[in-house]
Request: fold
Amino acid sequence: MTDLYENANIEVEIYANVGKKDVLTMKKVTIKDVAKQCNTSVRTVSRVVNKDPNVKKETREKVQKAIDEMGFQANAIARSLKDKKTNQIVAFVDRHQGLYWGAFHNEVLQELHKLAKDQSMRMVISSSSADSFEEDENDGFYLVKHSLCDGAVMFDTKPGDQRIDYLKKHNVPFVIVGKDSANYDTPFVDLDNKYAGYLGAKHMYDKGYRKFDFLLGDSAFNVNQDRLEGFNQFCEEKGLEENATHFDVSSMETAYHLTKEIVKNKELDGLFVSGDERALGVYRALNELGYTIGKNFGVMSIDNVRMSEYIYPPLTTIDQSIPDFIEQAFDILMDQIKDKKTVAKRIFITPEVVERESL
Reply:
């Protein structure tokens, strides 16, 4: 076990409030003060602070009691300066015009947080945008610039993304949840989105649907361009010339309104939706128009977030194995943090259809 404070060249500043007096009566308490109070060594106090399992129970209890009574608390900045590690990562999520907190992002960030916590790391979530990137003291790039994080996870990338260039320039370990087509030396984990688009169209076709459109998000994102390419490829193979794609369907609300507009003006028997959460808007629109989903109108989606199994009827969707997806991304990041010279890994997750009752 590494003793973080023993023989440190920096002073660990700890403050203890003396009674309920004015804040100016607060005094500085050092690790030496705790050691003196316990009649033990600085090394022993350091071992207790760092939860060394080899400290005797009686000694641990005595030192911990003194720590609690004196208000001793480790200064995280001092600790990181000594170790040259902050034990902190930043997750950058695109703003999506203020709509970036969707079900998919929530589940992905929850999985990432669990993994970080298991490694005793903090995770900071920061909004950012490839369209209007600039340094801001209120976002995660301030932490990057001032070496206050060990690495970063980047979501929602676009071609020529300046945020990626920034991380590379500052030699910060990072991994992309998505794809980077502009560089050859960047690490990422991504669903094979071209195949996801192809697979979704094929599955609807195999289930007997012939007139189905595809609803997608922002056309600037790599993920949507790849899904479009796969969808179009299958439609061309089968001669489905009338099956169209619709971009900028970025929320349940836009999916709801667009579905009503499309279905009223075009003969369709199904819709393929990029994102389970947006399918909720599609469901409502179809119900209001008198359709019975899974009977006289089919709906299929991509993501397989938890809600997709519990809406009615349960949603047929394409699974991208979120826990495995994020675990592989996290492992790539940790490898870089441990050794910045490690070779960049690129992993594609194979999509699979989860058959339910909406087709």
Remarks:
- Residues 199 and 231 are 8 Å apart (CA to CA).
- Confidence is low (pLDDT under 50) at residues 1-26.
- The longest helix spans residues 222-238.
- The longest strand covers residues 88-94.
